[in-house]
């Protein structure tokens, strides 16, 4: 379920503990960054009942409760449902989870309830399993193995709520080690996910859940060799792409999950023929275009960045796989340049990381495509790009690359860039601490100066000589050589 | 990966470059627009001036573990774990690049362009090639070079008034630097303890910036004295070398290779005692040091932390 709004409301309600919340969030963020650096970034989702509030602070049921509940379950007749409900709440606690699986026949009981003839009990049993799936303990993961074939089977069922729970449960256990993953692959999780998405494509919640499960599967170790070929061979790529429609009715969440799957696919391998053949570049681009417009107008839902981010990455990684000649065929009538720039400008303040990623895509788009470079000039986007040059953390270096791509194409482009004030911007960027900025600035300056003597004169008039002279004392030899060459061969001669 | 495109740079001759997207032909080569880079160099006869510019538009593939993706991935997982809110206050503002002084050895870093300009213009614009001292203006640099590094000057100064008043527009000349100093104090109201009005023999501390001109500058380097010191101290090479190593260099080693080789004459030692250290303009606030003190002012100052 799309719970962003719920989380926000909750944060607003508990005003007193907002500071705690913020601290906790910051700690979590740090932990996530470290986990990513250790290649151990895995998350699990917890699906709440609609009437429930998530409050992990209030978990109190202990191990004793679990023991008691299990016994009650084993012996009671008509009150199984009540006990199951209580058990699922109890299983939210990590220690209770561990205790539960250690009890004899505990999983066996749950599985039998899961597969029994009582629909209500099935639902409650799967909820218990879902709680269990949240555990990070290896022993819990391996205890799941008896349940997986049934969870997979139920994916082709028709009950949306039930299917949703099965999907999230599967998604949670996927990354829990090789044994579980191998078992799931052997039991046909990929075709099961494909037919589930196909059959239940009208249900937002199920599509989102399936996307999540697939995403988790794609995060497993060696996914590039073991999982991705099977995924590409299935119907999943076209199904994922079909969800990427700008239809506002369909909702952000399923599209986001599918886009993240596509990102995993495009960023783990370099062979994108299957995806390109199915129009991945066009679909992702056209959605980006409509999102770019909406973001530019300030007209978007909360959380749109969670969709924009993976789309940017897909386009960014698909572009190098598409030869320039085929680019217009692939993109069709999709004009990406202006929306990409809109995204860069719009995300600069709230999310500089996304601005950087959008600038990266712009680099890939303009690298070998003269039309895109021309579009930057035609739509008068260059002055605003130049305004981005102060911003570090990869933004200005990428923007400078884009401008260098433009200059590289034609002398006329250099002249236009000079008219738009790029020379004075370069005299500033040449003084930056970041050596990449200095080197790129010199390269760009070189291209512009070589294109026309007027530009050299303009540069000198703007006081560029002293800047280049200063650079001749730079600590990097490569930088010095470039400055010296430029001075001696093209400015002073 | 795609092959880098051939150069699409349209030269006046209509032909593009022949190389694999590497160098650009300069506009001088219009008539030879089809020449390869190597031929161009042979013709211009500047084999040592290889074009160092290598930019070529590049398609960048990013693997999913790439660090550029870190922030976005963290965002995604914060969402998955229900930790995401959209309060603007939580998001950090974009960071701005710093500026840094290029001069090798000067590690000053600045957050604004103005600060950079001020630093550079103050400390690195007018640098004496011989002794690496930075002077605040071209005029003072000229005077410095003349008085300190010009043997002709020292010869002439024995017979005529050569020491020019430092105040622009005054134009008076004096036989000795002491006389000039007196003039500056009396007429132009300079304070007697003017920080940079020291003779070449007086130094604030043992560290010196003088490198190559050992014989001529030795008196100033090695002697510490308050008054005039007419004895030429012998050069102590070991001490000089130590000082060299401890010094911050203003300019690169290439520059060092170009330092003038000034021959010393026996009389120079006496006239050296009167030579003045560079002055700073009265317009500049006292907190900003010039002359040999300037190095210390910024030495160890690593600029602001990012």
From TrEMBL, chain A:
SUPFAM superfamilies: ARM repeat (SSF48371). InterPro entries: ARM-like (IPR011989), ARM-type_fold (IPR016024), Armadillo (IPR000225). This is Transmembrane and coiled-coil domains 6. It comes from Fundulus heteroclitus (Killifish).
